[in-house]
Amino acid sequence: MDKYIYDDKNDLWYELQGDYYIPCLILPAEKEQPIGLWGQRHLQYLKEYRRITYLNLLTSGMLNTYLADIDKQTEEMFFRLVEQMKQAQGIMEQLKAENALEWTGRLNNIRACARVIVERKIIFA
Description:
By secondary structure, the protein is mainly alpha-helical. The protein has helices spanning 37-49, 51-60, 63-89, 93-98, 100-123, and strands spanning 4-7, 12-17, 20-23. Strands 1-2-3 form a three-stranded antiparallel beta sheet, with no helix packed on it.
């Protein structure tokens, strides 16, 4: 038996493994882009709860681009929300100079709220 065979009907090569011919499939090349924390969280969400979407993106070669885009959108939304909440609550550099501990606590509270909003709107949607 031949190690490799070609099927004209579907234009695929097959490799002999044991007693069976397995199609030689290769995922399309994808541009490598760095994926940050938000993209990694969304990837984990896709793997656990949106398996078909994950597999479609993976096999189409668009997963990395999609995750990089999600990461960028989420980061922009997070920082925009933090700035808007800081302005709405009147947290400025003057408070930081006067009472650094209170400033840190209030800023951490704002970041936690913004994180929850971003996760519900983008990451886990």
